[in-house]
Amino acid sequence: MIKLKTLASFTILFMCIFSFSSCTKKNHNTELVQNYYDQLNHSNYTELSKFVGDSITISEADYNTNYSKNDYYKFFQWDSVFSPKYEILEIKEIDNKMEIRVSKICTRIKFLNEKPIISKEVIEIKNQKISKIKNIEMDSDFKLWNTTKNEMVTWIKKNHPQLDGFIYDQTKTGAQNYVKAMDLYKEFNGKN
Questions:
Q1: Strand 52-60 vs strand 129-139: parallel, antiparallel, or unpaired?
Q2: Is 36 in contact with 29 (CB distance < 8 Å)?
Q3: Is the distance from CB of 40 to CB of 48 less than 8 angstroms?
Q4: What is the CATH T-level fold of the domain 2-67+83-140, as seen in this structure?
């Protein structure tokens, strides 16, 4: 009888410890993802880099880009020029991956899309660091985006050839040229 009580107590204790550690891991992953986006909002690479592994893969549609920490910093600098703001709308853990719905707005998106982009992303975490962000669904007006972008690129090429190629330059300088191109194009169209 004593053995049975001891076994039952041990089993209950084990289940409690296992449940607690599982919840702690889930809470840690949620917190990790929230901290990552919080640092993106503050354009704070020093803190952000603590949440990213030695490399990170960003996937969107058929495109996979693998970044070393140094390469990711360059991409971060490019993106930061547009003053992005992220809002996590939903977050949950599924099969050891984090699935989120996130809203992003920045000067570039507002100019090309006229509203935030809402995307569904799956985030993989290895060794308590983000290793992959896969965009699996995006709500955007791509027809408007492409029309605006193509008209601007054509106009810039004709009227400000010194900025030609800004669309492909994903460096900080490229992003600054992108902002100049948007400003010049908005001024030309009377939208400033």
A1: parallel
A2: no
A3: yes
A4: Nuclear Transport Factor 2; Chain: A, (3.10.450)
Q: Span 163-167, mean pLDDT?
A: 96
Query: Environment class of residue 2 by beta-carbon count within 10 Å: exposed (0-12), middle (13-18) or buried (19+)?
Result: exposed
* 3-state secondary structure at position 140: coil
Please determine, for residue 6, whether its predicted confidence score (pLDDT) is greater than 60.
no
The reported pLDDT for the residue numbered 26 is: 57
pTM: 0.82
Angle between helices 172-188 and 142-159 (to 10 degrees): 90
What is the greatest pairwise CA distance in the chain?
A: 91
Q: What are the extents of the domains in the chain? A: 2-67+83-140, 141-192
Nearest to 103 by CA among 83, 118, 113, 90: 118
For the segment 103-130, the average pLDDT, to the nearest whole number, is 96
